[in-house]
DNA sequence: CGATTTCCCTGGCCGC
DNA sequence: TGCGGCCAGGGAAATC
């Protein structure tokens, strides 16, 4: 479940290794969510950026600026092989797998859920693996995000000045939706998913189901969102089940979670048992003592 | 047009 | 051991 800290970790790993590379070949799993990967072939990588949970790979195609956009969904992973052993020009075949299995370098062996591959001009390859196929790939003219409505309507980056307490308060209060739902909507602030939403609300002492927040609560919540995301980045992301960084490594932020996934356990601040609920079809944990409505 | 609901996906885990 | 049921859940399409 890559959220902003996980995507940012991957971005930092990919940027130096990908920038300047020419995408000379591609392969994609036969699904409209992944076949756009082929549209990137023939372009050169100018840089790797991030917006919210979206990875934006800047491309240059004969002077025209394009973007290769990758959303990792729930289980998406990106990695770079040190070398690619093409035994087939198209889909990975059993012969390919056999070849990878003989390799002594684990990075040369994609998993069984490869969804896209870009071969680089120096023989390496960028691989996109996604067990559950919630991920998505698109190639568009630079800045043209009409085909990705959530990206097109994305709120400010959490560390941008535009993500102010007043912005958060007025946006939350103009809707009747629960504050947690709105944090997850990507429209008020970009990049927050279920893990960091629960963590931020717990830290700020805001009930996840609140429909209205005060100025004081908005100030605390704005700061908490920034803090939990910054700490998540510092810890290389949260690995609970599937998340791995671009080098196959696990993050360590799961060691520092106070709220997410801890329903039934005592609150680390007041020892009250954290409560489980479902908000907008998302599993939610909160402390009934620290997080009061209207807080 | 904004809000709400449905659908997409598979692996791990649990109980019988 | 085998298997049905359930859970994880972000984003886009469909529907209200």
The biggest beta sheet reads: 4 strands, antiparallel
Shape: elongated
Arithmetic mean pLDDT:
90
- Give the tally of β-strands: 10
Q: What are the segments in which pLDDT stays under 50 over at least 5 consecutive residues?
A: 87-109
Number of helices: 7
Order of helices and strands: HEEEEEHEEEHHHHHEE
Radius of gyration: 21 Å
- End-to-end Cα distance, whole Å, is 29 Å
The largest sheet has its strands arranged as 1-6-7-5
Q: What is the helix fraction of residues, given as a range?
A: 25-40%
Structural class by helix and strand composition: alpha+beta
What is the beta-strand fraction? 15-25%
Question: How would you sum up this structure, described in words?
Answer:
It is a single chain. With 295 residues, the chain is of the alpha+beta class. It has seven helices and ten strands. It has helices at residues 4-18, 94-102, 149-152, 165-173, 179-184, 194-204, 215-234; strands at 23-28, 44-51, 54-61, 64-71, 76-81, 114-120, 125-130, 136-141, 275-279, 282-286. The strands form three sheets. It has a four-stranded antiparallel beta sheet with strand order 1-6-7-5, with helices on one face. It has a four-stranded antiparallel beta sheet with strand order 2-3-4-8. A hairpin with a 2-residue loop joins strand 9 (275-279) and strand 10. Helix 4 packs across helix 7 (215-234) and helix 6 packs across helix 7. The longest helix has 20 residues, at 215-234. The protein is elongated, with a radius of gyration of 21 Å. The relative contact order is 0.15. Mean pLDDT is 90; it is low at 87-109. It binds a DNA duplex (16 and 16 nucleotides) through residues 1, 3, 33, 53, 71, 73-75, 113, 130-134, 136, 148-150, 175-177, 184, 186, 193-194, 240-242, 281-283.
């Amino acid at each position: 479940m890559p959220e902003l800290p996980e995507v940012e970790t991957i971005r930092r790993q990919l940027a130096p290794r990908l920038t300047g590379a020419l995408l000379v070949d591609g392969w994609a799993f036969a699904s409209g969510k992944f076949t756009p990967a082929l549209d990137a072939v023939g372009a050169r990588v100018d840089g790797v950026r991030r917006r919210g949970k979206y990875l934006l790979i800047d491309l240059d195609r004969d002077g025209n600026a394009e973007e290769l956009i990758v959303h990792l969904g729930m289980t998406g992973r990106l990695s770079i092989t040190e070398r690619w052993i093409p035994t087939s020009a198209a889909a990975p075949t059993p012969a390919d797998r056999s070849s990878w299995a003989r390799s002594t370098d684990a990075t040369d062996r994609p998993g069984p859920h490869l969804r896209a591959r870009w071969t680089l001009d120096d023989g390496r390859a960028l691989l996109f693996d996604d067990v559950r196929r919630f991920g998505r790939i698109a190639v568009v003219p630079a800045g043209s995000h009409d085909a990705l409505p959530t990206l097109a309507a994305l709120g400010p980056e959490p560390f941008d000045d535009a993500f102010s307490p007043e912005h958060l308060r007025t946006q939350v209060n103009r809707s009747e939706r629960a504050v947690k739902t709105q944090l997850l909507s990507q429209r008020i602030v970009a990049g927050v998913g279920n893990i960091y939403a629960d963590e931020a609300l717990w830290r700020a002492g805001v009930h996840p189901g609140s429909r209205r927040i005060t100025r004081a609560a908005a100030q605390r919540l704005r700061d908490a969102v920034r803090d939990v995301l910054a700490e998540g980045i510092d810890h290389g992301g949260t690995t609970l089940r599937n998340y791995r960084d671009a080098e196959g490594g696990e993050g360590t932020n799961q060691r520092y979670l106070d709220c997410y996934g801890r329903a039934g356990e005592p609150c680390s601040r007041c020892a009250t048992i954290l409560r489980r609920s479902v908000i907008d079809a998302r599993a939610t944990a909160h402390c009934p003592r620290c997080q009061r409505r209207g807080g």
